[in-house]
């Protein structure tokens, strides 16, 4: 079975090119639980940082620079998005429970976590710039970082990182 269902023709910008019917600056007016499915999906900045592997040590989440083997590090997209829960049993749906889970396991730049905790979306967020690539241009995604695929790794503790945006 292939490990790669990523549609080569998928353009991340397409999410932001047609905002017909989307209330302007909806994220300032609605709580997460009031958002439509489309609004919820638009909040994801595409950073890919939730696909880093983590360890829980003494009730704190430690991120590692190892990433799920299905993450494409250039686009920061999941290669098996439609099938991810079937293929990867511990892949998490990003829902309210996940956003509010303690200890926090989403990066502190994650739009869901930021809004739920009373912060604004950062100025590089695609919803503010209108550009899907702005997360990469701002250096806030995994693109270009020193990460490695989890394949073959079993000593995750040797890969713990302390990046300021996690
Ligand atoms: S960390 Fe949050 S904003 Fe970034 S890709 Fe994951 S869900 Fe989206
Ligand atoms: S399977 Fe889940 S954890 Fe792995 S890349 Fe896809 S979304 Fe990320």
Summarize the helices and strands and which ones pair or pack.
Elements: H1 14-17, H2 26-29, H3 37-43, E1 52-57, E2 60-67, E3 71-72, E4 77-78, H4 84-87, H5 96-100, H6 111-116, H7 126-129, H8 134-137, E5 148-149
Parallel strand pairs: 2-5
Antiparallel strand pairs: 1-2, 3-4
Bound molecules: iron/sulfur cluster (SF4) (2 copies).
Give an account of the 3D structure.
The longest helix has 7 residues, at 37-43. The protein has one domain (14-159). The model has no long low-confidence stretch (mean pLDDT 95). With 166 residues, it is an alpha+beta fold. The radius of gyration is 16 Å and the shape is globular. It is built from 8 helices and 5 strands, in the order αααββββαααααβ. The protein is 23% helix and 12% strand. Bound molecules: iron/sulfur cluster (2 copies). One iron/sulfur cluster (SF4) binds at residues 51, 68, 70-71, 78, 80, 84, 88, 91.
Q: Which range does the strand content fall in?
A: 5-15%
N-to-C terminal Cα separation, in Å?
33 Å
According to DSSP, the number of beta strands is: 5
Helices and strands, in order, run as HHHEEEEHHHHHE
Number of separate structural domains:
1
Radius of gyration: 16 Å
Lateral strand order in the biggest sheet: 1-2-5
Shape, principal axes of CA atoms: globular
Helix content: 10-25%
Oligomer: single chain
Tally the helices: 8
Ranges where pLDDT stays below 50 over 5 or more residues in a row are none
What is the structural class? alpha+beta
> Taking all residues together, what is the mean pLDDT?
95
For the biggest sheet, the summary is: 3 strands, mixed
Name every ligand kind in the structure: iron/sulfur cluster
